[in-house]
Specification:
By secondary structure, this protein is an alpha/beta fold. Helix content is about 35%, strand content about 25%. The protein is built from 12 helices and 15 strands. The strands form 4 sheets. An 8-stranded parallel beta sheet has the order 4-5-6-7-8-9-10-11. A hairpin with a 2-residue loop joins β2 and β3. The longest helix has 19 residues.
Length: about 325
């Protein structure tokens, strides 16, 4: 097996404004695993508010390159056990795990769906992100969009803005990226009209001392994002969150995400497969889990202007899964 990597700068179609800041581009680490003439691809994005530095990842990859390349072809779950032994950050482990699933499927000439016996009749529709802005401009973007589901970003609480969004005849979710207070969350979860929002994602800053005030039995469909990093926290979230956002880079890849979905179903969580602002490489990896999820937020590749790959596509919210082997990823 041969391991290669590169850092790619993805320019955004427009400024991406969220509670953590404003962004005009994203940098991503693209990893390639090659064996017997086939190539598998994985991706992780540089995220400042997660303290993700891709230069650090390059140093790590250089150190473990020989160990990775010495691995013989094995099932991805066995390869993941090997990855765990390297003590890699979850973002980097995810990129390698996804690349290996892509490679393994191509070598076996089977898709990820077939390898995992994933059958489906329909898929959830993906939302498109509406950046932080005045509510008037956000509503204008929603009204002009060809998408039918929207995730509206907020960096502050405004009862007036929320009421204006609730008056729209649209499928809308709120994502405050931790900018709401406990008092504001109590107002939301006790307001029956708020049940019209599909979900309210990561309302407060992370930590049990924050989310302990949230009640999963009230009107708000609270969804954990940063509060839901991996399978270990799920039991603790039950009294407070109705839904969870699974992102591959947070939990460490497709292999642990499969375990998370199984556990979350046992605990009666609603599940969303989410993404960072990433190319079709990362989106194709997340999209294969959509058949097992209630919600999808896979608009990342739609936000960038210079995608480098082809695979599963999200068109106006509809998910079109690639039928090719592995994760169906090809570089353009």
């Amino acid at each position: 097996m041969v391991l290669k990597w590169q850092i790619v700068k993805f320019n955004l179609k427009e400024t991406f404004a969220i509670a953590y800041g404003n962004y005009t581009f994203r940098e991503a680490l693209i990893v390639t695993l090659q064996s017997h003439g086939e190539k598998g691809y994985g991706e992780c994005t540089s995220i400042d508010y997660y303290d993700i530095n891709l230069s650090d990842f390059e140093i790590i990859l250089a150190k473990v390159k020989a160990q990775i390349e010495s691995q013989k072809t094995k099932h991805p779950t066995e390869f993941y056990t090997f990855l765990l032994s390297l003590n890699l950050p979850s973002f980097l482990r995810s990129a390698l795990d996804c690349a290996y699933w892509d490679l393994f499927g191509k070598l076996e000439q089977q898709s990820f769906l077939k390898l995992n016996q994933i059958h489906y009749n329909q898929l959830p529709e993906s939302s498109i992100t509406i950046s932080v802005d005045s509510v008037e401009k956000q509503i204008e973007k929603i009204e002009q969009s060809a998408w039918s589901k929207f995730k509206v970003k907020y960096n502050h609480f405004s009862e007036s803005d929320i009421n204006q969004l609730l008056q729209l005849n649209k499928n809308i979710a709120l994502d405050s990226n931790g900018s709401f207070t406990a008092e504001e969350c109590l107002w939301l979860e006790n307001n029956q009209k708020v049940s019209k929002f599909t979900y309210l994602e990561q309302p407060m800053k992370t930590g049990a001392e924050q989310y302990s005030v949230l009640n999963s039995n009230k009107f708000a469909n609270w969804m954990a994002d940063e509060d839901c990093q991996d399978i270990s926290v799920l039991n603790d979230l039950v009294p407070h969150y109705k839904s969870i956002n699974i992102k591959l880079v947070k939990c460490g890849g497709l292999t642990p995400a499969l375990e998370m979905i199984s556990k979350a179903r046992e605990l009666n969580f609603k599940i969303m497969i989410g993404c960072m602002t990433e190319s079709t490489i990362g989106i194709s990896a997340g999209a294969v889990l959509a058949p097992w999820c209630d919600y999808a937020d896979l608009d990342g590749a739609n936000l960038i202007a210079n995608d480098i790959a082809k695979g599963s596509r999200i068109v106006n919210g509809r998910i079109y899964l690639s039928e090719n082997h592995g994760l169906g990823i090809k570089l353009s």
